[in-house]
Design brief:
Order of helices and strands: HEHEEHEHEEEHE
Mean pLDDT: 97
CATH superfamily: YbaK/aminoacyl-tRNA synthetase-associated domain
Bound molecules: 5'-O-(N-(L-cysteinyl)-sulfamoyl)adenosine
Low-confidence stretches: none
Number of strands: 8
Radius of gyration: 15 Å
Number of domains: 1
Length: 159
């Protein structure tokens, strides 16, 4: 039997389908809120978890999405050099307003509005990766190539 997805996970499933991909969002009883928890829940390496991290530009207060391998910490200086302005912290409210999703469930796609996106090149080495799908219990499996196609972001070294 197919289980019913929660509304936020359903939004991501719909966004995937609209783009013509047959990827399936799954909701798990275990938490997938952090990269470590998500890796444990699906049984993959933490480096194969796709972290979708929202930053807020200091001058223009725009969101910037950095899609990072779960094993990496984003070097904000690298992103700042590329966008030409300093980055500040995005708080939970900003993340929800800009993406439509809560922290821990922010997906790489399906946001309320388009967002400037950078993708960690380290993700490209894996056959399969797992991304958040709208809630801290929802994920979907995809290939790095699909991630790049779906997000249309600039692939860079983020560390
Ligand atoms: N579902 C998992 C794996 S797919 C997930 O979403 N991981 S994540 O790393 O992409 O999302 C957590 C990110 O949210 C953290 O890296 C951090 O940048 C951000 N975050 C966590 N807590 C806060 C907070 N209190 N305020 C702002 N951002 C936060």
């Amino acid at each position: 039997m197919k289980h019913t997805l929660s509304p936020s996970a359903q939004k991501v499933q719909e966004a995937i389908r609209q783009r013509g991909y047959a990827l399936e969002v799954i909701e798990l009883p275990q938490s997938t809120r952090t990269a470590v928890e998500a890796a444990q829940a699906v049984g993959c390496d933490v480096a194969q978890i796709v972290k979708s991290i929202i930053f807020k530009t200091k001058r223009t207060a725009r969101p910037v999405l950095v899609i990072a391998s779960g094993a990496n910490r984003v070097n904000e200086k690298v992103i700042e050099a590329l966008i030409g302005e300093p980055l500040g912290k995005a708080d939970a409210e900003f993340v929800r307003q800009q993406t439509g999703f809560v922290i821990g469930g922010v997906p790489p796609i399906g946001h309320i509005q388009p967002v400037q996106t950078f993708i960690d090149q380290d993700l490209l080495q894996y056959d399969e990766i797992w991304a958040a799908a709208g809630t801290p219990h929802a994920v979907f499996k995809l290939t790095p190539q699909m991630l790049v196609e779906l997000c249309g972001g600039q692939v860079i070294q983020i560390t």
